Amino acid sequence: MSALKLALWGFLAVLGSVALAFVVGLVNPQEKVNGLWLVVAAACIYVLAFRFLWMLAGDWKR
């Protein structure tokens, strides 16, 4: 895997964790949740889960 792809996946993981922290209320507990944080967190989790599911499905020797 190239360094650029690794950096992209790392960025998506960090962005998803920050967005999830905003949704859960760890960053600003008194604020209401913005819908954009919810969409970003869901999209990042979906993309990362799809990537790992695709990697597992491609391993036919299991």
Q: What is the element layout, followed by pairings?
A:
Elements: H1 3-24, H2 35-57
Helix pairs in contact: 1-2
Short description:
The protein has helices at 3-24, 35-57.
Radius of gyration: 15 Å
Biggest sheet features: none
Shape: elongated
Q: Report the helical percentage.
A: over 70%
The number of helical segments is: 2
Strand content: under 5%
Query: Helices and strands, in N-to-C order?
Result: HH
Strand segment count? 0
Low-confidence stretches: none
Spatial gap, N to C terminus: 21 Å
**Tally of structural domains:** 1
What can you tell me about this protein's structure?
This protein is mostly helical. The protein has one domain (3-57). It is built from 2 helices and no strands. Helix 1 crosses helix 2 (35-57). The model has no long low-confidence stretch (mean pLDDT 85).
